[in-house]
Design a protein that fits this description.
CATH topology of the largest domain: Rossmann fold
CATH class of the largest domain: Alpha Beta
CATH superfamily of the largest domain: Response regulator
Distance between the termini: 52 Å
Structural class: alpha/beta
CATH architecture of the largest domain: 3-Layer(aba) Sandwich
Strand order of the largest sheet: 2-1-3-4-5-11
Bound molecules: alpha-L-arabinofuranose
Helix content: 40-55%
Number of helices: 11
Number of domains: 2
Order of helices and strands: HEHEHEHEEHEHEHEHEHEHEEH
């Protein structure tokens, strides 16, 4: 009897090994878990890159540290994964480690944020157009002030920036700045990083409120920093949102941002879509089939504000 069980176990192990060898191994060097957006992005990869779909996912959370991401990429190279996917925390400082992946013959796909490296070191990038997101926000503010009859007033603005040097920070700052530059009466009082987190967003907003008693607009380079800023504004006895005395908007448009708009605390949310898992899988499948892929793949994005039927839209949202 013991012999039969041992043979059965051995057979199952062999079957398991064959199965594991058939899977495409993907190493994902994720930024961290700093925001609702990031959690939705992680879930998108974990739901997509499953054994049932033909993948083995090796997931690494870098806790917002570039050195951790570099270590993860080196580990993926050592484990001879089939593909490396990176959402780089910042844009610069990747040339050496990407060259190592290239020399090892492992294709690298960039997702979400961009890297400042030579073209041949990655096969494709997929993500949001951060400059466009910032410009859309600027145009929204123009329109909003016009409708409020405040187009010619002096408007004092502060910005809670994302991680300095991250594409989402660089692009959104640049995009909004492009529209700001067209308005002599818009004054950027201060810009400071809130590291894309709610806690830091609250802390920086508290100091802004101390330094600048006359803030009209708060630009938050992600939703979670806006949630922190809203708490700081309320704690200071001020009000924000469409009926408040401070206009506040953010980027991402996660479910909690819809709740904040519905509660009347947030004016608008500019979409950044985190569901990149299936998009990266499509790129990998094309490469597996020997097909060519577009090097740069932007995702279509929109925005939402309190003039819309937010309850109905929220019900259709996946994150
Ligand atoms: O790179 C995308 C940004 O990273 C999202 O706006 C933010 O929430 C996340 O941390």
């Amino acid at each position: 009897m013991k012999k039969v069980v041992a043979v059965l176990l051995a057979l199952m192990m062999v079957a398991g090994m064959v199965y594991a060898e058939d899977l495409i191994t993907v190493g994902y060097a994720q930024v961290g878990a700093e925001s609702d957006w990031r959690m939705a992005n992680t879930k998108s990869f974990q739901d997509t890159f499953t054994p049932e779909n033909g993948y083995q996912l090796i997931f690494d959370d870098a806790q917002q540290k570039q050195e951790n991401q570099i270590r993860a990429i080196r580990n993926f190279i050592q484990r001879e994964v089939d593909y490396i996917v990176v959402a780089p925390v910042v844009e610069t400082g990747w040339e050496t480690v990407l060259q190592e992946a290239y020399d090892a013959g492992i294709p690298v796909i960039l997702s979400d944020r961009m890297m400042d490296v030579s073209d041949e070191l990655y096969v494709a990038w997929v993500g949001g157009n951060f400059v466009k997101e910032g410009e859309t926000a600027g145009h929204w503010l123009e329109d909003y002030l016009e409708k409020q009859g405040r187009a010619d007033e002096d408007i004092n603005i502060v910005t809670l920036q994302g991680t300095i040097g991250a594409s989402a920070q660089v692009g959104r700052t640049e995009g909004f700045g492009n529209i700001l530059a067209q308005h002599d009466n818009w004054h950027m009082l201060a810009m400071q990083t809130g590291e894309f987190t709610q806690a830091k967003g609250q802390e920086v907003m508290e100091s802004f409120l101390h330094s600048y008693p006359d803030i009209d607009v708060v630009v938050c380079e992600n939703d979670n920093m806006a949630f922190g800023a809203i708490d700081a504004i309320k704690a200071a006895g001020r009000t924000c949102g469409p009926d408040g005395d401070i206009i506040i908007f953010s980027f991402d448009a996660v479910r909690a941002a819809f709740d904040a708009m519905i509660a009347g605390d947030l004016n608008a949310a500019f979409e950044c879509n985190p569901l990149h898992g299936p998009r990266v899988a499509e790129i990998i499948q094309k490469l597996e089939n020997g097909e060519s892929v577009d090097k740069i793949q932007y995702v279509d994005e929109t925005y939402f504000d309190t003039t819309m039927d937010l309850e109905a839209i929220k019900a259709t949202r996946a994150y």
